[in-house]
Structures are given as C-alpha cells and as structure tokens.
Amino acid sequence: MDTMSNGKPDFGQMYEEYYDRVYKYAYTILMNREDAEDIVEETFITAFSAYGMYDASKASFATWITRIAHNKAVNQQEIPEASGKMPGDAGIRRYLKKRQREEMRGVSMPLHLLYK
User: Fold this and answer.
1) For 93, what's the count of Cα atoms within 13 Å in the CB-facing half-sphere?
2) Which of 5, 14, 32, 75 is most buried, by the most CB atoms less than 10 A from its CB?
3) Which of 69, 42, 46, 50 has its CA nearest to residue 8?
4) Residue 105 banded pLDDT, cuts 50, 70, 90
5) What is the 3-state secondary structure (H, E, C) of the chain?
6) pLDDT tier at 30 (50, 70, 90 boundaries)?
C-alpha cells in the first residue's frame, strides 16, 4: 500500500479498499440501495475533507470510516417532523434525489414491454 508523505495511506487506495464495506454497512442500516449509495458518497466526501485530521494511532481507518458512515446513516433515519428539526442540506438533497428516482420509475417503461 502506497503512503503519502505524512505516513498515511493514499486516500484513493483506501476508497477502493473500503467502498464495499461502507456500502454493506450503510445498506444493513437503511435497507435501501439508493439511500446506501448516497450515504457511501457522503461518507467518502466527509472522510476526504477530514483526512488531514485522521489519526491512525487513535483508530484504524476501517473504524474511522465506518463511524462516519454510521453517523450519516443514523442521521438519515431521523424523521425531521418527529424531532422538530428541519433537515439540513444533505437531507434535502437525499429527499429530492429520492423523489426524482420515484418519478423516473413512473415514467420509464420496462424493456420487455417495449419490445413485444
């Protein structure tokens, strides 16, 4: 594994190595493929932004990235109406993506019906 000048593994390699693990973890919490994919994306964006502060002496990369994914997945499960909180930008983006996917499902026709 290549390391950067600061002794940390290259983030790109860590992304490749841990993508599936983070996806599976998010999916077990959310039980929805699209939501899990969104959480993986947000997790790695957050991790990349905070990678300079990551301290391998405090936690392994696996523990660190899984904790980020856990927090994001749990936060997504919170219902803003029940907690009295308004969703943040990430919550609004997820909601809009989900609505767009639902609308596209209604518009698209299964291929087997197109080619009868």
Assistant:
1) 7
2) 14
3) 50
4) low
5) CCECCCCCECHHHHHHHHHHHHHHHHHHHHCCHHHHHHHHHHHHHHHHHHHHHCCCCCCCHHHHHHHHHHHHHHHHHCCHHHHCCCCCHHHHHHHHHHHHHHHHHHHCCCHHHHCC
6) confident
| Residue 5 CA to its chain's centroid (Å) | 28
Instruction: Name residue 63's amino acid.
Output: T
The structure tokens listed for 23 are 């996806």
Length of the chain: 116
Q: Tokens 């856990």 appear where?
A: 70
